[in-house]
Amino acid sequence: METKLKSVANSTAWTNLQAHYEKVKGLQMRDLFAQDGERGEKMVLDAVGIYLDYSKHVVTDETLNLLLQLAKDCGLKKHIDAMFAGEKINITEKRAVLHTALRAPQTASIMVDGENVVTAVHAVLDKMSDFCERVRSGEWKGFSGKRIRNIVNVGIGGSDLGPVMAYEALRSYSDRNLNFRFVSNVDGTDFAEATRDLDAAETLFVISSKTFITLETMTNAHSARDWLLKTFSDEKAIARHFVAVSTNAEEVTKFGIDTANMFEFWDWVGGRYSMESAIGLSTMLAVGPDNFREMLNGFHEMDEHFRQAPFEKNLPVLMGLLTIWYNNFFQAQTVAVLPYEQYLKRFPAYLQQLTMESNGKHVTLDGAVVDYSTGPIFWGEPGTNGQHSFYQLIHQGTKLIPCDFIAFVEALNPLGRHHDLLMANVFAQTEALAFGKTAEQVKAEGTADWLVPHRTFEGNRPSNTLLLEKLTPSALGKLVALYEHSVFTQGAIWNIDSFDQWGVELGKVLAQRIVPELESKSEPDLKHDSSTNALIRRYRKLKTH
Ligand code: G6Q
Question: Candidates 281, 501, 505, 508: which one to mutate for ligand 1, based on the most atoms within 8 Å of Cβ?
Fold first, then answer.
């Protein structure tokens, strides 16, 4: 009973939205646009260099007002202020959530447990900058005196997805004399393929792990150590070829990396919110300290916008609310993220962790099971590739899939007509999704009657279009922060802890139980279910190594 009373789904704002949904669910975008010739100019937000067109949604002014009321009633402003102030809003881990401090200017002051964390953030940034300059200039030498040409980031989850995504996104700003590889999977193939053509004498490993005990990362780090020592057979080489990014100095030292070569971050930085902390060392090595700081400035601009802009003009708030609208009222299960920018090819994968690890929760902050749906499934591929595969289902399937189209006015590699063709596809897709093609239109084209249903497009498929000027480091920072805060907005409304990840922790311990059962020489006494027992026995019987 108590749970029901407390549930946001029982609040006045929510029930008003539910009633409103029943009224507007049948509205057609075609009619909405016909009724207001300026809808496409009115339902836009142009802030901090991002133009968001949210007109192609099944929403009216009233929908937006009701959603904004929901945000207000859920105390979103209070939640935002609490996060920025360093309150321990990650309640299950009793931690502050301060990725915003990582991009705060040097003059800012953010106190955690009596200390201004901004001072520490900038000290690490300076240490990273100094190190990156030395590697990039060739001053930092490998053990045999050769300069570093290859950088291998070893990490997983939040210690991998951000670095890979940012490296790919900012490749056009990177030093092309340096070769970057990313090893994450405990599958030996990942390490083997990443290093097979590298000269150990020119290779630097960045071991990125907040805890420095993650099975995959430590296994890969030890293999990297063995790989290097095959060339040098002298432990002293480690200091020239390994650096660590971690919060755990003790484990770093145990591994054999001098803490002088360790770049620190803090427990108030969640893994999936860490790409602009020292976890971004590989990014800074690639693009240099100035570009890295420009990226931080982009993040910070979006942070300030989120903190200060009124909700109706607030990009992350609006995007978060629209996600709630489809997720909780239309019962949409997924959101497709479709960047029309090849450099953002890993952005959907990055967002999958950010969104799904944050909001894939089934209980509220008080531990009550939610009686509404939480985080949607995020997925996507860069345009135009997706158009030749899964867009079919978005256009004509039976599932409602709100889409985020992300595009840039300026091409980083202008080439003939390519960019106009790319952009034409963005605009055409959002148009087709929204307005479709009626049976009358199809008939008027001379289509045979029997074929008409197949060639008819219902339309009314919602999308956001995010249009930016150019993919710069700053633009990347803004985009990532936009999604971070949209996720925050959703989490605040669903009343869940968007900053823990007990599901990941479970994975970290489960496999450890089985490892000895696979490796033991004598027949293990298996106590799993019959399926797991049989699989383990079969593997043991057939394995050759
Ligand atoms: C992120 C998660 C998770 C984490 C990895 C790596 O929010 O906690 O993806 O980043 O499990 O953890 P370490 O950095 O500790 O190795």
Answer: 501
Neighbours of 200 (CB within 10 A): 21
Cis geometry, peptide bond prior to residue 384 (ω within 30 degrees of 0): yes
CA 55 to each of CA 32, 42, 396: distance values in angstroms, whole numbers, following the listed order: 9, 8, 21
3-class secondary structure per residue, 88-146: CCECCCCECCCHHHHHCCCCCCCEECCEEHHHHHHHHHHHHHHHHHHHHHCCCECCCCC
Find the mean pLDDT for residues 428-453. Answer: 97
Residues annotated as catalytic are 357, 388, 508
Strand boundaries in 257-341, DSSP class E: 262-264, 334-339
Question: Per the structure block, which two tokens stand in for 91?
Answer: 């309640």
CB-based contact 57:335 (threshold 8 Å): no
Gyration radius (Cα) of the chain, Å:
25
Give, using CA atoms, the residue closest to atom 8 of ligand 1.
Answer: 271
pLDDT value at residue 3 = 45
Distances (CA, A) of 490 to 8, 355, 376: 12, 10, 10
Which residue carries 């991009």 as its tokens?
A: 103
- Predicted confidence (pLDDT) per residue in 171-213, tens digit: 999 999 999 999 999 999 999 999 999 999 999 999 999 999 9
Q: Which of 302, 48, 295, 335 is nearest to 163 (CA)?
A: 295
CA 91 to ligand 1 center in whole angstroms: 18
Is residue 258 pLDDT above 50, yes or no? yes
Distance 155 CA to ligand 1 centre (A): 8
User: Distance, CA 407 to ligand 1 centroid (Å)?
Assistant: 30
* 3-class DSSP assignment, residue 516: helix
pTM of the model: 0.97
Q: Residues 257, 261, 263, 264: is their CA dihedral positive or negative?
A: positive
> What is the tens place of the pLDDT at every residue in 377-393?
999 999 999 999 999 99
Task: Quote the CA–CA distance of 51 and 49 in Å, as a whole number.
Answer: 7
